[in-house]
Amino acid sequence: MEQPPKDWDCPVLEQVNVSADYYLLSVAAPQVALSALPGQFVLFRCGTRYDPFLRRPLSIHQVKRERGEVSFLYQVRGVGTRWLAGRNKGDAVSMLGPFGRGFTFSGRGKRGILVGAGVGVAPLLFLAGELSALDWKLVILIGARTREGILRAEVFKHYGNVKIIAEDGSTARQGTILDLFREEVEEAHWEMIYACGPVAVLKGIQKISKETGIPAQIALEERMACGVGACLGCVCEGATGETVRYLRVCREGPVFDSHEVILRD
Amino acid sequence: MIDLSIEIAGIKLKNPVMVASGTFGFGREYTPFFDLDKLGALVTKGLTLKPCPGNPPPRVWETPAGMLNAVGLQNPGVDVFLREILPFMKTFGVPIIANIAGFNVKEFATLASRLSVPGIAGIEVNISCPNVKTGGMALGTLPELAAEVVGAVVEATSLPVIVKLTPNVTDIVGLASAVAKAGAHALSLINTLQGMVIDINTRRPALGNITGGLSGPAIRPVAVRAVWQVAQGVDLPIIGMGGICTANDALEFILAGASAVAVGSANFRDPLTAVKIVRGLEQYCIQNGIEDWQELIGAAWKGNA
Q1: How far apart are CA B143 and CA B148, in angstroms?
Q2: Which residues contact A66 (CB under 8 A, 6 or more apart)?
Q3: Catalytic residues of B
Q4: Distance to chain A for B66, nearest Cα, Å
Q5: Per-residue pLDDT reduced to its tens digit, B67-111
Q6: Residue A262 is inside which H or E element, if any?
Q7: φ, ψ dihedrals at B246, nearest 5°
């Protein structure tokens, strides 16, 4: 049974500037905490007037169910997220959600590989916690252009073996996250790949998933208007069938099996 | 309790607040938020004869106090609508107006005929979509062509015919007069304004379709002006739309001459916008001692308020 989405004014518990333009926002949202699934997102109203006009979708980063807390890791990219970054403890933010199809998982003690590029790690921490609770053995790959973009690596360590890489060589390993990913895929037996990041990274993962036969679930990002499936604004191209068919990232996604979609730069 | 009901072209509305085509899907996605029977009417996503994939992404882009969209009429086609969607929509207990988007005159007539079934209260003729290469706005900017489409639709159905006009013309009153003469029963004013954004990072147009339709509060003054001009020049009921976010916005349209209003992009920001506007209109009437809200229609130029 789908939970009815609500529009809540939620108190901000904490706002932390994690590094560079990256922020971690924690809010008290017991209803969201209770019903949210890893990979789902929430729509934030940014501002009290009509500019910015649209809500901003942020994936759920971490949930503390017993405390009714939900956290969001995000990058300040424009006026909406800049406004959000200006909210402090005690302020209220209008949230709508949770929405979307999240990551799927079942069974205990399986082996999974998580791939998060840049702020793409955002939906993976919640997932890592859920998988860890099911005794999954996890390797978590975190990559970014620079060290400042390597986010939350210390927290991910609670749930698995974390490996980091930066493209500019500011970490011990220099290269792309796909370099790390290829090595890991060759070295061990994996039952599921979970990934989130820029399209170029997801395309690489899609290709390797196809070559190796290891199923992959990828979380996509697209500009949204309504976020609930009505406006058809946030689509991606579906890979099944002979004719062009667009899938709603907010409704059929944001998490897709990698073979379901055609990724375009 | 104020009686906000009104009849437009024979369609009985319990209140004058509708939701605009393309901003509410077929209603399903908004059922978790509120009982849709609180709406005056529900206008469907634009329907085409065959399933339409729509335009490539990105399809939406935020603009100052508004947004651009270039969805391009993605819809499952009239057959799937009639077979799989309409039965569900009929359970809402609210008049359903089918928005039709043909790519030529014949298609408009065929769509109107196919949709003349129990459960559909009226036909909204979309000759104003800026996001398709044929049909759409191409048919809606020339009065003779627009009249030809409307005439064919009126011929093909016994349902009330509402014509949704584009503001992307120099003489919207002339256009409205032409479709009125062709037999239209009501007008929807306005569809989106044609617009464009260039992403300075990629140095390319932001939308996959290059241009899109501008909506949201940024276009409200344009829409109010269109309603004001057409209401004084053409004797047809008008459904006003374009950037309506609050009851005060809706009142502007009513005072300009609209008999009903439709909420569009504001649904995306707050799914409860339409029901909040209904409440706001009731409060306005109570606070101002208005017993018959219809006296407000066009009051800004009739001077009877």
Answers
A1: 9
A2: none
A3: 129
A4: 6
A5: 999 999 999 999 999 999 999 999 999 999 999 999 999 999 999
A6: strand A261-262
A7: -140, 170
What chain B residue is nearest to A8 in terms of C-alpha separation?
B270
pTM: 0.94
A190-219 pLDDT, tens digit each: 999 999 999 999 999 999 999 999 999 999
ipTM of the prediction: 0.94
Residue A240 in contact with partner chain B when CB distance is under 8 A: no
Q: Which residues of A touch B71 (CB under 8 A)?
A: 231-233
β-pair partners for A163: A141
| Three-state SS at B279 | helix
Contact between A58 and A83 (Cβ < 8 Å):
no
Q: How many CB pairs under 8 A join A and B?
A: 103
Q: Cβ atoms within 10 A of the Cβ of A83, count? A: 18
* Residues A114 and A139: beta-carbon distance below 8 Å: yes
**Under a CB-based contact definition with an 8 Å cutoff, are residues B99 and B124 in contact?**
yes
Under 8 Å between Cβ of B164 and B99:
yes
Whether the Cβ atoms of residue A48 and residue A57 lie closer than 8 Å to each other: no
Query: Rounded to the nearest 10 degrees, how much is the dihedral formed by the CA atoms of A210, A213, A219, A223?
Result: 20
Residues 14-53 in A contacting B (C-alpha not used; CB under 8 Å): 45, 50-53
Give the containing element (helix H, strand E) for A33.
Answer: helix A30-35
- Nearest CB neighbour to B60, from listed A233, A237, A245: A233
Chain A residues lying within 8 Å of B61, measured CB to CB: 223
Which residues of B are less than 8 Å from A57 in CB distance?
Answer: none
Sign of CA dihedral B60, B61, B64, B65: positive
Looking at residue A48, its pLDDT comes to: 86
